[in-house]
């Protein structure tokens, strides 16, 4: 009988740990990501104006050559699009090129060069071969991140965005505002809608969907709009979806069951 009680307690404890892991790990990762973003901002503040201007000039040149290459305009600067060059441009340190904040769904993540598994496990990846996220006409940056990872939220709540919502890209010493104007679900192989649109300044955020199945891609696109600090400051967080509330509640349900059983057991002994 004693052994059965021990096994039951261990089973509940194991269940509680397993259910609590995503919540606890998510909080830890979120703090780490905020720390990474803060470190990036500090590095920018410590950089000289000349250094920042030089970096921005190279990034603009990259985007211009990229756009021209896509419309079949030859350039003697095509080497700037090489992988080695790409990884150096906007790389202030640790491969970070900036950060993205989506206040309405409590997202504040570093943006890294490339979309390797290592990058996508800790932040947002910039898709090599698309415009660098510095803004400007004839640009379209593709930023991608996982959702539903046990260890981090990342773009888990991206499906809660609607047209008109704002997100912000911080790169070098600028803050760029984008207003969501298009939301699509596409096949993984469908890249037709991800191309640069001439004359526009766009950023597309991509993650897997449906949640847990990941058979398609959710694409949330925003078009550049004027950054207004007052509007940014007044953005309110959205209420979490039912899915997120359920996942958040699971550890507390387990804890309630455990405490309820202990109280019941204690009353029987009395």
UniProtKB/TrEMBL annotation:
Pfam family membership, one: Sortase
Source organism, top-level taxon: Bacteria
Keywords tagged on the record: Hydrolase, Membrane, Signal, Transmembrane, Transmembrane helix
UniProt cross-references to InterPro entries, sorted A to Z: Sortase, Sortase_C, Sortase_dom-sf
Transmembrane segments: 245-263
Signal peptide, first to last residue: 1-25
NCBIfam families for the chain: class_C_sortase, sortase_fam
UniProt name for this protein: Class C sortase
């Amino acid at each position: 009988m004693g052994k059965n009680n021990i096994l039951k307690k261990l089973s509940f404890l194991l269940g509680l740990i397993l259910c609590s892991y995503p919540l606890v790990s998510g909080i830890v990762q979120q703090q780490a990501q905020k720390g990474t973003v803060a470190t990036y901002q500090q590095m920018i503040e410590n950089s000289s104006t000349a250094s920042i201007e030089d970096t921005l000039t190279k990034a603009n040149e990259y985007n211009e050559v990229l756009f021209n290459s896509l419309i079949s305009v030859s350039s003697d600067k095509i080497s700037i699009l090489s992988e080695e060059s790409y990884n150096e441009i906007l790389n202030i340190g640790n491969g970070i090129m900036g950060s993205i904040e989506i206040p309405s769904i409590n997202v504040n993540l570093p943006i890294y060069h490339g979309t390797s598994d290592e990058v996508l496990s800790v932040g947002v990846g910039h898709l090599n071969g698309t415009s660098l996220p510095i803004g400007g006409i004839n640009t379209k940056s593709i930023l991608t991140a996982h959702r539903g990872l046990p260890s981090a939220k990342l773009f888990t709540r991206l499906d809660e965005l609607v047209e008109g919502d704002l997100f912000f890209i911080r790169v070098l010493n600028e803050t760029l505002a984008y207003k969501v104007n298009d939301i699509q679900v596409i096949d993984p192989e469908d890249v037709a809608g991800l191309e640069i649109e001439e004359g526009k300044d766009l950023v597309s955020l991509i993650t897997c969907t449906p949640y847990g199945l990941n058979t398609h891609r959710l694409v949330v696109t925003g078009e550049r709009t004027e950054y207004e600090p007052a509007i940014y400051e007044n953005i309110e967080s959205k209420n979490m979806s039912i899915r997120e509330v359920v996942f958040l509640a699971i550890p507390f349900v387990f804890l309630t069951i455990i405490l309820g059983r202990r109280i019941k057991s204690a009353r029987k002994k009395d």
